[in-house]
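RETRY 2/3 - previous attempt timed out on the joint model. Re-submitting the same 666-residue input unchanged.
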Amino acid sequence: MQDDNDTDGHAKRSPGAATKFARGEKKYWLDEARNVRKIYVGLWIVCALLVAADLFYEKHIEYAIERVVGFFGFYGFVSCVLLVLAAKQLRKIVGRGEDYYDR
Amino acid sequence: MIDSLPPGWLLIFGGLLIPLVRGRVRAAYMLLLPLLGFLQLLVMSHGDLLQLSVFDYSLTPVRVDRLSLVFGYIFHIAAFLGMIFALRVKDTGQHVAAFIYAGSAIGAVFAGDLITLFVYWELAAISSVFLIWARRSERSYRAGMRYLIFQITSGVLLLAGALAHVHETGSLAFDYLGLSGLGGWLIFIAFGIKCAFPLLHNWLEDAYPEATVTGTVFLSAFTTKMAIYALARGYPGTELLVWIGVTMTAFPIFFAVIVNDLRRVLTYSMNNQLGFMVVGIGIGTEMALNGAAAHAFADILFKGVLFMSMGAVLLRTGTMKGSELGGLYKSMPWTTGFCMVGAASISAFPLFSGFATKSLIISATAENHYTFVYFVLLFASAGVFHHSGIKIPYFAFFAHDSGIRCREAPRNMLIAMGLAASLCIGIGAFPALLYGVLPFPVDYEPYTATHVITQLQLLFWSAVAFAWLNWVGLYPPELRSVNLDSDWIYRRLVPSTLAPVVRAGARLWNGVLERAGRRITITLQTVHRYHGPEGILERTWPTGSMALWVAVLLAILLLLYFF
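RETRY 2/3 succeeded.
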């Protein structure tokens, strides 16, 4: 944590405040591609375990379809994939250059 | 004595004195005001504390009950946290504006009649625009102008509605209003503008990201939640709100996925969260209204953390574009951590605040057999995790390393984020604390095996969807772009259709000028510089014409009332 006095200006474009350098600095755990892979695989394992967990308790729930094992996982996954694919199409319709309103 | 001081006045009038104090005294003073205001609420009596008679009408400038108190508490907390965050801002005007803004939002939730509400409503609108203009750029000036037009229109409709309402019912009291008459509809639309109903929403996404680093934090807390309070007071159980709310939860998340400016992503997600609250108000049962109030409370805190962390990034790097950020966890580890707490809270992870509050609303939809709404809200919950929970922290702090190395956020900002993040976890871990101040008694247990496991399934599978789409390269990259939304109508369509008319008018004007005497022409050439085709008035004329239409609207409504 560092202390300083330069917070009076707001969103001042101050390229000096942020520097770009990457050489010769500390290597972080996430910089290794295989560690990112570990997280990715780990995520799938957690997801599988959560579906398995559905077998070990009684669901108290409103709608019959929600009793299907892993229903919420399936619903979340499909929702997000559809959301992103739809948003990509939306970008084709509403996407414009950054200076659209300034022209 | 305490009862005779209207809530909010301490901040409004106390804020005006800020220019008189300097240095550490000013800092202490700025933190003391919201604390004193909060204490005042704790010891105040309940009921109509102040009543006035104006002509034949009775006004109730201060009415204290459980619904107004829960919003009063959180507004004071938001003002306190926001002030810590903004403590080192040297621009005194911003502090004064923020205090008047916070104070008028507080005043509004304790207003017992429509006229008092209108006064605070407008004061909040006018004071808040200075937080946008304080960025002092052409861009923020224009965005602030568009913001102001929406806010003032809302105020005008509220006043017109109040007049129509008093004509219909003979009462100015701000209680249940309903959609039975013209007054009810006008006030409904006035609230709807500030609550960012679909098609009335775009001022939010347009203006908030253009405000200052600290200004956006204040803006995110008050205006929209004041509108949520007003809807909960005036229109509980109005079924139309369920359908409006469910639309609000769904459509902004598609935009949020493709927007590049990360603070703008947060405004779309705020629009989505407001949708949940509006659905709760529309259902209108005690549980659903509790849910709306509780979620507004939680939202102010987690949205506060998220806007603060993005503000800190903007302050340190000078940019808010997802396409240019990434890898900042190396430079700003604390900010990263707090941002992730906010992200987990908005996504409703167990042990974080959203889990304890949003579920009240979602459960209420199922209990009241709004099956379609229930499943859309589940979709929106997955979606909000996708863009607010993952996209924000991922593109700012992780993703590909942008190579940007900067300092950690200033200490006061870290303290503000830390406090807000602790409250998010506090509410999530001990929901009874928040449930205890809700308008109605709460009979709900969020931590059941079913709820925890189904929620974790929904969230983790959403996360894996994001990871998988990224892994296989299907995820749309962050692009430097602008996305058209309903603002296109008034920023492009209307201006381009009317431009020929204006040009013709300008030509006629020029012709008249030429015929006039030479000396007058010379004098008027100065005027021409502003009125001519290339002049300032020509360039900003959509603003002027909108203001005119607002005036015309007001005039018509006044006439309607008169007859």
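The first strand of chain B starts at residue 47 and ends at 54. Closing ticket.
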